[in-house]
Amino acid sequence: MIPIIDVRDVLAGQADTAILGGASGSGFLTLSHVDQTLGLSAPRQNLLAFFNAESEIRQTVLRNKYDPASPYIYRGYFPSDPSANHMVDGYDIGPDIADPGFPSNPADPLTEPTPRPDLPGWQAAAAQYYSAMDTLGRALTRSVLRGIGKDEALVDRLFNRSISTLRLFRYPAHHPAAIPQHRHVMLASGETRYMMTGEHTDSGFVTLLWQDQTGGLQARGPNGAWIDVPPAPDGLVVNFGQMIEDWTASRIKATPHRVIGGVEERFSVPFFFEPAVDARIEPLFEGAGAPFVYGDFLWERMMRFPTFQGVTRRPAA
Hints:
By secondary structure, the protein is α+β, with helices and mostly antiparallel strands.
């Protein structure tokens, strides 16, 4: 069961029991009253307008993988490419959008600045949305640490100069005949659906997801069956990443999930709350693995995705 928690209680530090219950159980939470409390509906609409912008505007913020003249490797726009087994358009936004003083290391793509499209109000909307998600990610992580009896001050140490990512997704509509056979999914009802994002766990600590009313997100339940995770009106879905599961010796669950759909357009906006690129992650519990540097862990995970395959980076440590 996925608990529903009022975001106002999360921000006030008054939802620790409910947060830990969801984080250690299904690995998912639903937060209510988010748009109302944080004023996110208008900026999100402004951000997603990018996908309806003129082609020339979108081309100016392409990643290097899609435009060899572009200096951007990790941030920016990546278009769908069904021939490369990639079915979604996306745009990755980094911390510099909200923190102009964020230090960029030219040798490390994980800290590169975010390209900004020439759209009215877009940068201000991105800064507002990013800042709100960062605040919420910190509150949730502090709550989890309190819940498992660890020092919540770790958030200040590990997430100073965080490289969290705000991502915009557009899933284009496809005619069923154009969707490759390996993406066809037969439901128990006998209905055929289509897998747009394959089964995976997220890489980092906490993911905050808005999805439109099209839905399509599914989580793998304890019995192995797929469970729909419906859109939350005025709210967000929260799930926990592989990093926090490893860090807590599996006390917090990184639940496998996927997105099905494909025949109608879908939009979603996830925020991946992550530590600093050079944060040294020490196990919280005995037997939880060896220490490592977060940026190196993240890059190894990212190489599994089609949008990063063939891209290189020098290790941080």
